[in-house]
Amino acid sequence: MSRNTGLVLLADQALHDTGAHPENGRRIPSVLDRLQRSDDWGRLQIFEAREAAVEDISRAHSAGEIEVVRSSAAMGPTWIDGDTPVSQASYHVALKAAGGAMEAVDAVMSGKTGSPDSLFALIRPPGHHATRERAMGFCLFNNAAVAARYAAEQYGLERVAVLDWDVHHGNGTQDILWSDPRALFISMHQWPLYPGTGWLDEVGAGEGEGFTVNLPMPPSSGDREHLEAMEQVVEPVLEAYDPQLLIVSAGQDAHAADQLANQMITTTGYNRLAKMTADFAARNGIGMVALHEGGYNLDTLPLLDHAILSGFGDFETDLTDPYAPEGSADNGWPERLEEIKRAQKAYWRL
Ligand code: ZN
Description:
Layout: E1 6-9, H1 27-36, E2 45-48, H2 54-58, H3 63-74, E3 78-81, E4 84-86, H4 90-109, E5 118-122, H5 143-155, E6 160-164, H6 171-177, E7 183-190, E8 212-217, H7 223-241, E9 245-250, H8 267-283, E10 287-292, H9 301-313, H10 333-344
Parallel strand pairs: 1-2, 1-5, 5-10, 6-7, 6-9, 7-8, 9-10
Antiparallel strand pairs: 3-4
Helix pairs in contact: 1-9, 4-5, 7-8, 7-10, 8-9
């Protein structure tokens, strides 16, 4: 049975002008071009990002962080750090990216007949590396954390889950939600890799201890490894936490042909990840919001985002992957999976 899904679009995204940087204004149009030519386009509900207020951003970031983004952009084009360029419009585009995440939350929480079960916000700049105090790693404001805090405040939610499948660890989201039991943060990421965090012993602190769950995946992990991680760790933890909203930090840079990492997920793998999360949300009667994070190969990103939407909406889509790797590597995954489970057994029944 098909499910209601769609997109949140950010018309001004290219005004966050990063030139020839891997995270650039051509990424989202490449995805939209494919979607608009497909049979699935007519099934998608389309929403437009609104600009978040500074008050909304302040639920996740310090005043100092917000001011660095604002004043750097005003001086743009310049760089906030060695990875993170900004242009004159970047502050406003970043406010809209966070506001796009909030728009998606409102749409899936509305409860109106025909409202979307899930939405995929095709926003940039991405957010998951931005910590409370620091814009970094292509990220200005942490869209996932802003959305989680907004959902808690606006709808009185006590449990929001954030699942981050970007190939890089979502250090910023982890940092902001670290001691917050009203938010569960789960990250599957290549380890070791930028930004260097996300090891097993990072589990949150204080009231939030146990509500940060890290799955450091060995290099050359593909569909099998990620789907086993989902089935044996992510799904049981999500079921036990019983979230009232699921936010996905959807980065497609764990694909075999992505140039920024070494993982080997295929189109089918991303479709399965998306379907598993949508099935979980449907089983539990909750809304789901996916936020675009990484994914830098313009030849494959459109295919991967389409595969994800297909999983959300349960569409029949051709998932042929011209870049699919053959076989699977002996990368120590079975042992790592046991290590992950051992680390989490103090908090979850696995
Ligand atoms: Zn990434």
